[in-house]
Design a protein that fits this description.
Blueprint (H helix, E strand, L loop, with lengths): L1 H15 L13 H10 L4 H5 L17 H12 L3 H9 L5 H5 L7 E2 L5 E5 L4 H6 L6 H12 L8 E4 L13 H18 L3 E5 L1 H7 L6 H4 L4 E3 L10 E6 L2 H6 L4 H18 L1
Parallel strand pairs: 2-3, 2-4, 4-6
Antiparallel strand pairs: 1-3, 5-6
Helix pairs in contact: 1-8, 2-13, 4-5, 4-9
The structure holds uracil.
Length: about 270
């Protein structure tokens, strides 16, 4: 049943991506081909090159406010995900929290090898207290299904746990204040692979100035500063499904990125 639902979702994603025609008599298993390519020895450069380093700093230098310090202390003191959720639910200094109906913490399987980080909850997410449950979440589900994943095969959260009013872009102050929470969240989940869904999480968490169009489909290392104590996690930015809904022609590129993620998952399992 689950399998049928996934296949149907994958089929819908193919159609959305423009794969709408059968071009041969017999099916070709492209996954098997890419698996064979992954298994075959590759030149060192091909493996090393995708781990791009970001060199330019995105996060502006700001004077630390009391709220920033409080967020940092709370995040650092959270020993597990339940404690982090509790700390965030009790944190009232972020202005976004005052207008939000819910703290949207995260969903899915924290033991999954892959963690997705979006931008911020929208209206549906705010109402339901769950990430990616609106129209862009539905497209995200189809994208995941196209590479054999569902919500139990991933863990999903956002840069910000509170909806910016009217879905406006979060300000640099709001983003910067909430950074310790998402950084701790990633530390506690400790995924094998990170996927940054959209430009906001990619540029902020990779400390980059490049836009999503340049970053998507490339492997980076999180954390970008190579903090000696932290485990380096391969991280790929992808187009945000809301962006894909506005620019359906880009689904072709999203599909290429999803295949790279699938190959990397197979590589590590
Ligand atoms: N967009 C996001 O980035 N996150 C959500 O949870 C919903 C929409």
């Amino acid at each position: 049943m689950e399998h049928t639902g996934n296949s149907l979702a994958a089929l819908n994603f193919y159609i959305d991506a423009g794969v709408d025609e059968v071009i041969g008599e017999d099916p070709v298993d492209r996954f098997a081909e890419s698996q064979a390519a992954v298994a075959a020895p590759r030149p060192v450069a091909a493996r090393a090159a995708p781990l791009a380093k970001t060199t330019e700093t995105h996060t502006p230098n700001r004077t630390q406010t009391e709220a920033d310090i409080s967020a940092r202390t709370l995040a650092a003191g959270a020993a597990d995900l339940a404690a982090l959720r509790g700390a965030m639910e009790g944190f009232d200094a972020c202005p976004l929290k005052k207008t939000a109906a819910n703290t949207v913490f995260g969903a899915g399987n924290p033991a999954a090898p892959i963690m997705l980080v979006g931008e911020a909850p929208g209206a549906d997410e705010d109402r339901q207290g769950q990430p990616f449950v609106g129209v862009s979440g539905q497209l995200l589900d189809r994208m995941l299904a196209s590479i054999g994943l569902d919500r139990e095969g991933v863990y999903i959260t956002n840069m910000l746990a509170w909806r910016p009013p009217g879905n406006r872009k979060p300000t640099p102050e709001e983003t910067s204040m909430c950074l310790p929470f998402i950084r701790r969240h990633i530390e506690l989940v400790a995924p094998r692979i990170l996927v940054f869904v959209g430009g906001t999480s990619a540029t902020t968490l990779l400390d980059a100035k490049q836009g999503i169009t340049r970053m998507r489909g490339r492997w980076f290392v999180y954390p970008p500063d190579g903090d000696a104590g932290a485990r380096a996690i391969p991280a790929m930015p992808i187009f945000h499904p809301a962006y894909l809904l506005r620019n359906p022609g880009l689904k072709r590129l999203a599909w290429i990125d999803l295949l790279a993620i699938k190959a990397r998952l197979e590589d590590i399992s």
